[in-house]
């Protein structure tokens, strides 16, 4: 048992040593970025053109399409499988001379940029993303200007592709200009957008939406909600709300627009039918409607059925004896009247016969 444990520990230790050595090797290697589909040339250090070298990738022989010209390795039409750690060894002693970490990717294309103010009038944020991946590290440079003056840009701590900007003044007629440039080792691309302050105001959806039935009101539902916590000054910059609701059995929504209120009573609900309810918010003067809030469900009040009361003696209907089913007539012995009639008939027939004789 001890030998098995010892052997297992040795295997694990050897694997750890190999991984550690590979990481150390990669840390010491220089990184070379190349574009997919191109021919790539890697130079083995500063060796002379007539030097003879051997190349390996990730510790094995290079099997990709290639040419070797002295200390240079030329890979033909590289693709994503060409990524790896390339090492060159000088012949004939086999001494390693260089290491190259080859990374294949694309130059960036123009990023998609959007800006929005959900904290009006404090400021706004801008987000960006690439529609196509580059597969190699790509950074973004952001420049925001207002009235030809640069504004301070604060990068978001959570969302790496987002920045925050404070409004330098309110109700400005000058547009804002935002430029985002994507940059990597293979190229750069920029996108510039311009907008006015009022066009980007869009609150977050209302929060803590609650809908509940009203006792003894079969067609009513009481809906309450809170303003979004991200909206900093609801007193001076009030919101209006858009409520929509429908029973689950139908697809058509009913709508109600409300000004500066955080409650509403639905009066035309179907009794006993479950409803789905959502709200959106918008600044009273400018901007656009928020997204819809999380849907809530509620069912209007229904009167409980009355219990069955016990009957009194006067309410009892006398029980009658049921007769035989009409489809199955009862057959039994003849009654006394029937027997007397038969005897009289036989006596009359006997008298008639004696008179004839």
UniProtKB/TrEMBL annotation:
SMART domains tied to this protein: FN3 (SM00060)
Domain Ig-like as annotated: residue spans: 14-88
Keyword hit for Signal: yes
Gene3D superfamilies according to UniProt: Immunoglobulins
Residue ranges, annotated region (Disordered): 305-331
Protein origin, superkingdom: Eukaryota
Presence of the UniProt keyword Glycoprotein in the record: yes
Keywords linked to the UniProt accession: Glycoprotein, Immunoglobulin domain, Repeat, Signal
Signal peptide: 1-21
Pfam families: FN3_IL27B_N
Domain Fibronectin type-III: 107-204, 205-305
GO terms for MF: cytokine receptor activity
CC terms in the record's Gene Ontology section: membrane
SUPFAM superfamilies with a match to the protein in the record: Fibronectin type III (SSF49265), Immunoglobulin (SSF48726)
PANTHER family in the cross-refs: INTERLEUKIN-27 SUBUNIT BETA
Family to which this protein belongs: Belongs to the type I cytokine receptor family. Type 3 subfamily.
Protein's name according to its UniProt entry: Ciliary neurotrophic factor receptor
Species for this entry: Culter alburnus (Topmouth culter)
């Amino acid at each position: 048992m001890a030998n098995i444990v010892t052997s297992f520990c040795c295997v694990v230790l050897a694997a750890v040593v190999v991984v550690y050595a590979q990481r150390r090797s990669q840390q010491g290697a220089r990184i070379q970025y190349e574009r997919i589909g191109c021919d790539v040339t890697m130079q083995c250090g500063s060796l002379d053109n007539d030097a003879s070298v051997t190349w390996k990738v990730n510790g094995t022989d290079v099997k990709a399409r290639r040419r070797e010209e002295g200390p240079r390795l030329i890979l033909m039409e590289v693709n994503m499988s060409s990524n790896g750690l390339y090492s060159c060894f000088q012949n004939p002693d086999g001494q390693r001379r260089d290491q190259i970490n080859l990374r294949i990717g694309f130059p960036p294309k123009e990023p998609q940029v959007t800006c929005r103010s959900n904290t009006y009038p404090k400021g706004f944020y801008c987000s960006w993303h690439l529609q196509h991946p580059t597969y190699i590290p790509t950074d973004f440079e952001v420049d925001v200007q207002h009235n030809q003056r640069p504004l301070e840009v604060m990068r978001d701590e959570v969302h790496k592709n987002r920045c925050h900007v404070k409004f330098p003044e309110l109700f400005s007629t000058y547009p804002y200009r935002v430029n985002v440039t994507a940059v990597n080792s293979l190229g750069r691309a920029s996108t510039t957008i311009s907008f006015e302050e009022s066009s980007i105001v869009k609150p977050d959806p209302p929060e803590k939406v609650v809908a509940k039935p009203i006792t003894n009101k079969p067609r009513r539902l009481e809906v309450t909600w809170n303003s979004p916590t991200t909206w900093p000054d609801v007193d001076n910059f009030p919101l209006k709300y858009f409520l929509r609701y429908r029973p689950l059995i139908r697809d058509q929504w009913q709508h109600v627009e409300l000004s500066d209120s955080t409650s509403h009573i639905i009066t035309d609900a179907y009794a006993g039918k479950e409803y789905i309810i959502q709200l959106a918010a918008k600044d009273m003067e400018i901007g656009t409607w928020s997204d819809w809030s999380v849907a809530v469900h509620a069912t209007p009040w229904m009167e409980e059925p009355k219990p069955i009361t016990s009957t009194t003696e006067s309410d009892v209907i006398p029980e009658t004896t049921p007769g035989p089913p009409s489809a199955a007539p009862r057959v039994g012995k003849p009654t006394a009247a029937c027997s007397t009639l038969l005897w009289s008939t036989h006596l009359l027939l006997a008298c008639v016969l004696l008179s004839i004789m």
